[in-house]
Automatic annotation (TrEMBL):
CDD domains: Mth938-like. It comes from Roseibium polysiphoniae. InterPro entries: MTH938-like_sf, NDUFAF3/AAMDC. Transmembrane segments: none annotated. It holds the Pfam family DUF498. This is Mth938-like domain-containing protein.
Amino acid sequence: MEIRDAHFPGRAPLDAYGGGGFRFAGMSHLGSILCVPSGIHGWNAAGFEDLDITAFQRFFDEQQDIEVVLVGTGKDLRPLPADLKQAFRDAGMMVDSMSTGAAVRTFNVMLSEERAVAAALLAVD
């Protein structure tokens, strides 16, 4: 049996969040997610302490198709470390942290406007 990383191959608005996961495209995912141009991927980050440069590698791999990165930091807004923000700037991406709920709402609006947006969203209960 082959076990693959969670992945939805496409861009889709997020229908719901909470209960430790997300709903989108008629499916649900338990845990955190990354929304990038190549699709929606499961993300191993469980909490704010997991947010380092390696946790965001997929964004740097797809940077040519991303202008804005939204980071949902959980129930509360937490500012990203300066070195992480600088790495995004150096790669030509604007990064903004906010609570996961605010990031989900902002992602959906920007996606509907066909903006080059991506999101890293920590799951919340």
